[in-house]
Amino acid sequence: MSNSVSRKKIAIQLTLAITLIVLAVIAKRAIANEPVQSVSQGSITQERAAELTHMLRHDCGSCHGMTLKGGLGPSLLPEQFKDKNSEYITLTILHGRSGTAMPPWKTIISEDDARWIAEFLLSGRIKEFNK
Ligand code: HEC
Asked: What is the domain-level CATH number for residue 77?
């Protein structure tokens, strides 16, 4: 009799332990998939951030240089933006500059994307990608 009671106890404890492990795994996954909050409003997933940095190098890079040091278009490194803010860069990316080669990107990327790119350019983190 007491033997079956202690077996039941062990079974309950095991069930509890397994439930806790499953919950921990689920929680960990949820945290890993959580979008990265950008400095300004809006959130960009890590996956989207990778797509945008790829776009910077290959699409923007065709005019601004692969390392964004400048080419047909000016440099997009932080030194370029000393007297300019994130809003200015975001608007330039979305709407382009009429009368120049700088095209508008608003049909391809969202406002959040453009804002993320602006913050990314201002942060100078592109230099890590240029190594
Ligand atoms: C077809 C060429 C071309 C492409 C592609 C291009 N740009 Fe430009 N961009 C220019 C030119 C030229 C200028 C300078 C416009 C002017 O004279 O005001 C410029 C200006 C800018 C400026 C303003 C710089 C400043 O200091 O005022 C930003 C920011 C910028 N581009 C970001 C981007 C981003 C981000 C991309 C990719 C999503 C991109 N550009 C793609 C040609 C291009």
From this structure: 1.10.760.10
Which pLDDT belongs to residue 115?
97
Interval 91-108: pLDDT, tens? 999 999 999 999 999 999
Mutate to test the pocket of ligand 1, among 48, 77, 102, 117 (most ligand atoms within 8 A of CB): 102
Q: Name residue 44's beta-bridge partners.
A: 36
Ligand 1 pocket, residue 111 CB under 6 Å: no
**Looking at ligand 1, which residue's alpha carbon is closest to its atom 32?**
93
Range of the domain at 17: 3-130
CA angle 59, 90, 77 (to 5 degrees): 60
